[in-house]
Amino acid sequence: MSPPHYPLSGITVIDLSHVYNGPYATFLMAIALMLVIEGLLPFLLPKLWRETFRRITEFTDGQIRFFGLSSMLVGLLMLYFVR
Predict the structure, then answer these.
(1) Cβ contacts of residue 64 below 8 Å, gap of 6+?
(2) How far apart are CA 50 and CA 56, in angstroms?
(3) Do 28 and 20 touch, CB atoms closer than 8 A?
(4) What is the pTM (predicted TM-score) of this model?
């Protein structure tokens, strides 16, 4: 008889609580996740990423600021509703 197969069997959890405690560890995990997400497009579709980045460089300062402000507001709203 083989041992039961649980849904999360084989998953390894990295516990950094003995090195970085509390909110600092959460902050580091958030930064790490952001880097993973930002790296997906250049890794999977480098030509599309290059073309998109080239287009963004042609935006005016006002357009870039609006995009940045919009991103910050969406992030703040997400934090508000998650907490």
Answers:
(1) 56
(2) 10
(3) yes
(4) 0.58
Q: How many domains does the chain have?
A: 1
Structure tokens at 51: 């073309």
- CA–CA dist 80, 19 (Å, integer): 28
Query: What is the span of the domain harbouring residue 78?
Result: 23-82
Residue 40 lies in a domain: yes
Residue-wise pLDDT for 60-69, tens only, equals 999 999 999 9
Q: Is the dihedral of CA 76, 17, 31, 27 positive or negative?
A: positive
Q: Where are the beta strands (DSSP E) in 17-66?
A: none
4-15 pLDDT, tens digit each: 777 777 888 777
